[in-house]
Write a structure and sequence with these properties.
The relative contact order is 0.16. Strands 7-6-5-8-9 form a five-stranded parallel β-sheet. Strands 2-1-3-4 form a four-stranded parallel β-sheet. α2 (51-62) packs across α11 and α5 crosses α11. The protein is globular. The protein has helices spanning 12-27, 51-62, 84-91, 107-112, 130-144, 162-171, 191-199, 211-214, 234-240, 248-251, 282-304, and strands at 40-45, 66-70, 97-102, 119-124, 151-155, 178-182, 205-208, 220-223, 259-261. It folds into two domains: 7-128 and 289-304, Aspartate/ornithine carbamoyltransferase (Rossmann fold, 3-Layer(aba) Sandwich), CATH 3.40.50; 130-285, Rossmann fold. The protein is an alpha/beta fold and 306 residues long. Helix content is 37%, strand content 14%. N-carbamoyl-L-aspartate is lined by residues 51-52, 123, 129, 132, 162-163, 225, 263-265. Residues 51-52, 123, 129, 132, 162-163, 225, 263-265 line the site of N-carbamoyl-L-aspartate (NCD).
């Protein structure tokens, strides 16, 4: 793997190895403090971010590396009309590795055409978000101990939620997985995702609009925000924005060993009262994101030096 554009760029074995490295970093951070000394990460964020950008930056700094970049398109030459390909061609001369987020689906593929250093897709429009999936996977591994035989519920905006698409692709490679897709009619999983990763592999799944009808059978509940920025009109957003709210009452109906994940940011879809439930893993999940990104940066820089 030279770049991470899609979660399937990584084999199941590579993901396992990265999780092992990330766990070792958590236990022995002092062993990694100079792992990327004199290396530079560029974070090119053409779209807003808190966790993804800051966890990438913290990751590189904790590996002893340096960070350059921008956090909004308006402060880059994109505002003057520069193409993604040109920006990448230039930044390839300033950095050893690039993490980019862009509102257009496929932008990281365009970036590859001019990149001379590894590219990491940190989210492309409503399409994919592979490093969030690595974060989700290390969380599932640490909290449940395994990936096989899990019933995974995905709830909320399954249409525009890029984290959902990448997570379905990743989980579809494990044995005994079942998916429960919980969304309003208008925000169902796109058929290209369903066809490629669920139907083509014969994975059992059910679709429902009612979280309370299915919450009792879930091992993992992945809540998502309704993606306001991808809606064509505000009216539809307002109608759908509070379609699901996870509350302590709903949690009372769930398994004792359920884990609740959320890529964050949360808006209203998880009541703050759920935060103190030991099954609520989303803040731990955000923390693990830094360590798995450290493992990813090391792996890509190693491969680039081969
Ligand atoms: C997600 C994203 O950007 O897609 N956030 C993140 O990276 N943790 C989810 C979201 O914005 O709702």
């Amino acid at each position: 793997m030279k770049n991470l554009i899609d979660i399937l760029d990584l084999t199941v074995e590579e993901i396992d190895q990265m999780i092992t490295v990330a766990n070792d970093i958590i236990d022995h951070p002092e062993n990694y403090r100079e792992a990327c000394k004199y290396k530079t990460l560029a974070t090119l964020f053409f779209e807003p971010s808190t966790r993804t950008r800051l966890s990438f930056e913290a990751a590189m700094l904790e590996l002893g590396g340096r960070v350059i970049g921008f956090s909004e398109a308006s402060s880059s030459s994109a505002a003057k009309g520069e193409s993604v390909a040109d920006t990448i061609a230039v930044v390839s001369g300033y950095a050893d590795i690039i993490a980019m987020r862009h509102p257009k689906e496929g932008a990281p593929i365009v970036a590859l055409s001019k990149a001379t250093v590894p590219i990491i897709n940190a989210g492309d429009g409503g399409h994919n978000h592979p490093t969030q999936t690595l974060t989700d996977l290390i969380t599932i591994k640490r909290e449940k101990g395994h990936f096989d035989n899990l019933t995974v519920g995905l709830c909320g905006d399954l249409k525009f939620g890029r984290t959902v698409h990448s997570l379905i692709a990743a989980m579809s490679r494990y044995a005994g997985i079942k998916f429960v897709l919980i969304s309003p009619e208008e925000l169902k999983v796109p058929s290209y995702v369903k066809n490629a990763y669920i139907k083509a592999k014969g994975i059992p799944y059910e679709q429902t609009t009612a979280l309370e009808n299915v919450i009792d059978k879930l091992d993992v509940l992945y809540m998502t925000r309704v993606q306001r920025e991808r809606f064509f009109n505000e009216e539809d957003y307002l109608r759908l924005k509070d379609c699901y709210v996870l509350t302590p009452e709903k949690m009372a109906m769930a398994k004792k060993d359920l884990i609740v994940l959320h890529p964050l940011p949360r808006v209203n879809e998880i009541s703050v009262a759920v935060d103190s439930d030991p099954r609520a893993c989303y803040f731990r999940q955000a923390r693990y994101g830094k360590f798995i990104r450290m493992a990813l940066i090391m792996k890509l820089l190693e491969e680039a030096n081969k």
